[in-house]
């Protein structure tokens, strides 16, 4: 009976050691979850900057066209 308890605890210990890399280790679930959150934040920032760049590009085009119209007159 004592041998069964020892074997059970040994197997539970091995199971815990095998689960550590899956959950906490490099490339584990927690790391991937954190990276996915960082990716989402970066995608939002990229979208904001893309909109700003498009607005600036439109302003530049308006200024270029405006200068051409002034030169023609």
Q: What can be said about this structure in brief?
A:
The protein has 73 residues and is mainly α. Helix content is 90%, strand content 0%. The model has no long low-confidence stretch (mean pLDDT 89).
Separate helix tally:
2
**Tell me, what's the shape?**
rod-shaped
Helix content: over 70%
Mean pLDDT: 89
Give the low-confidence spans: none
List the quaternary state of the chains: single chain
Strand content: under 5%
What is the terminal separation in angstroms?
A: 103 Å
Radius of gyration: 30 Å
N-to-C order of helices and strands = HH
Structure characterization notes:
The protein is mainly alpha-helical and 73 residues long. Helices cover 90% and strands 0% of the residues. It is built from two helices and no strands. It has helices at 2-23, 29-72. It is rod-shaped, with a radius of gyration of 30 Å.
Keywords:
73 residues, mainly alpha, 2 helices, 90% helix
Task: Detail the topology: elements first, then pairings.
Blueprint: H1 2-23, H2 29-72
């Amino acid at each position: 009976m004592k041998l069964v308890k020892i074997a059970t605890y040994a197997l539970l210990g091995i199971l815990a050691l095998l689960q550590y890399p899956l959950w906490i280790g490099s490339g584990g679930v927690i790391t991937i979850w954190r990276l996915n959150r960082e990716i989402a934040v970066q995608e939002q920032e990229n979208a904001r900057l893309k909109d700003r760049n498009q607005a600036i590009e439109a302003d530049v085009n308006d200024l270029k066209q405006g200068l051409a119209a002034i030169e023609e007159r």
